[in-house]
Amino acid sequence: MTLLEFLSDRLGRTALQLICIGLAVLFLFATGTQPGVLIILLFVLLFIFAAAQIYDFFRQRIYLQELESILDSLDQKYLFAECVPPPPNLYDRRLFNLTRRAGRAMTGAVSDAQAAQREYREYVERWVHEIKAPITAARLICRELDGDTRRKLTAEFSQIEAHVERALFYARAENPEQDCLFRQIELEKIAAQAIENHRSLLIQNGIRVEMENMNCAVYTDEKWAVFILGQLLQNAAHYRGEAPVITISAHPLGKQVQLTVSDNGIGIPAHELPRVFDRGFTGSNGRSRGGSTGMGLYLCRKLSGFLDLGLEIVSEEGKRTTVTLTFPAKQNLTKL
Fold this sequence. Notes:
Elements: H1 3-9, H2 11-30, H3 35-73, H4 80-83, H5 90-142, H6 147-172, E1 182-186, H7 187-197, H8 199-204, E2 208-212, E3 217-221, H9 222-238, E4 245-253, E5 256-263, H10 283-289, H11 296-307, E6 310-316, E7 320-328
Parallel strand pairs: 2-4
Antiparallel strand pairs: 1-3, 4-5, 5-7, 6-7
Helix pairs in contact: 2-3, 5-6, 7-9, 9-11
């Protein structure tokens, strides 16, 4: 709060006080008080008035600075009303108590919402683990069928597993730190695991995967990194072109390593590129081909932020799409 803001806020009160001082001086002058005495009295009243204003200004300014300091130190900002000292005067205390009561009601609502969200997330995680058992059983049953039917059902089960896995990671993405372990790992191992997880999808769509210069170590969480790379492979398979090829390559860059995933698919229109990481955005390609949820790249962006990964995408419509993940390299051990 500046002095100008303080005075403008009290403009009406200040003007009234100055008018009262002027009227008092005029009254004394009309009753015969000597001009010299009036001048001295006027200066004294103005001095007292100015001193009172300056005192109020610094008192309020210090109090506001204290409140701002308390707010900045809080991790949970909605607990602010419970942590600040009450104001000195009666009116402000009554107003403060009303604010505190409203804050307590809001805190209770936030706690209930967090508890409900936590219960829902736990339910989704349990459901995902439970649904994997019948999916696995159905896969085993498929082995007894003839070749063409077995391939079709296996492909459908792969899609179901992909959606189930995405639901699980979406539920965990709210608090990824609870299920995260940072360590050094070879990029080749991450890529190999992601490819193995989606082998059926890649084979079904006739996609060839090539890996180049993958003998680089990075510092990340293996499970989350495999999931992110898996989402990129799924997108490349879904939006494939003729003779589809996915190229996964690594490029050391100082204390970082860039992992690029390139395909020769149908690409993304230029005007849609800024929105591809938005939640639920499917784009014209997703609507034309169907089966798109708009959640894959959204989760990639969200998890990349937690893992401190850079995530960029470039595309040329009808020709190619390249996604670049920038990992901390093995030399950068600040999180260890």
